[in-house]
Amino acid sequence: MSRVGQANLAYDRQVLNRKTSGSVVCPSCGSLVGVNDGRCYTCGRANPGLWGFAPLLRRLGTDMGVVPFVIGACGVLYALTLVTSGASPFRSLNPLDFLSPSRTAMLRFGASGGVPVIGLGAWWTVLSASWLHWNLLHIMLNMMGVWNLGPTIVDIVGPARTVIIYVVSGACGFLLTSAMSLIDIPLLSGASFTAGASASIFGLVGALVHYGRVSGSSHIRTEATRYAVIMFAYGLLLPGIDNFAHAGGFIGGYALSTWLNPLTREKGDHMIVAIVCVAASLAAIIASLVTSVV
């Protein structure tokens, strides 16, 4: 092997943690397979060694830090929407408007709702809106929800499946409220403009309710149901709350938990899907920024 080849191999092993020989665990069924095997002999999965990166994916699934990642990403995007708003963020001392990005900035980064999704055809905003927030109080309350619920759901279903539920259930919530915006009936109409992590938080609650039901844990089911009822009640009593996004997120989280089967161990494939979900969210934000410039 040439010196260049040897250097590349050393880089793969030391920096990327790529395994080039021996056995690895199949991401689909958990059986031991050769790192260079073309197919798993147990489940038939093609390329079970994932070019030697299967161990790295398993390690990421153990310590990827879902809660800090979500809070950090939302915080960075909130700061960016404030910086690009143009007007002074201190223009109002009202807690509901304090440090509030402009609607233009929110749309630029991917706020969702009936107008962006249906009126402007920006369907991808159902993926970006969960990472955006309207004001300081909004992001503080939602990040408290992520901080409180995140560790529990990560312990139960695993970090990768938590990311999948967070992203996809949020998209379900914003898709529902966008569709319901076509109905012009008080209390039954969805939001024209909407954003926030609350749809995804309701998705996490829905997943916990499902886990409590199928696992037989009456404590988890009762606590998660109580949490959901209280949050829905607040949404009905307080103005400006997107209840359809919450309902869609809850339904999406419950359905996803059914599909992902939280009673089974997390697999390497879940990590791959989680990475795709995060990449799709980033792509949605970039698409919003590009189309707003054009």
Structure write-up:
- The protein has helices at residues 3-14, 54-63, 66-83, 103-109, 114-119, 125-128, 136-157, 159-180, 198-215, 218-237, 243-260, 268-293, and strands at residues 23-25, 32-34.
- It is mainly α.
- It folds into two domains: 3-62, no CATH class; 64-293, Rhomboid-like fold, CATH 1.20.1540.
- It has a two-stranded antiparallel sheet with strand order 1-2.
- Helix 8 packs across helix 12 (268-293).
- The longest helix is centred in the C-terminal third of the chain and has 26 residues, at 268-293.
- The protein is globular and about 60 Å long.
- The model is unreliable at 4-16 (pLDDT under 50).
Describe the structure concisely for a colleague.
The chain has 294 residues and is mostly helical.
What attributes does this structure have?
294 residues, mainly alpha, Rhomboid-like fold, two-stranded antiparallel sheet, 12 helices, 2 strands, globular
Largest sheet: 2 strands, antiparallel
- What is the global morphology? globular
Q: From the helix content, strand content and strand pairing, which structural class follows?
A: mainly alpha
Q: Determine the fraction of residues in helical runs and give it as a percent range.
A: 55-70%
> Spatial order of the strands in the main sheet?
1-2
Cα-atom Rg, whole angstroms? Answer: 21 Å
Count the beta strands: 2
Give the assembly state of these chains: single chain
Mean pLDDT: 83
What is the CATH T-level topology of the largest domain? Rhomboid-like fold
CATH superfamily of the largest domain: Rhomboid-like
Q: How do the helices and strands follow one another from N- to C-terminus?
A: HEEHHHHHHHHHHH
Give the name of the CATH architecture of the largest domain: Up-down Bundle
- Which spans have pLDDT < 50 for at least 5 consecutive residues? 4-16
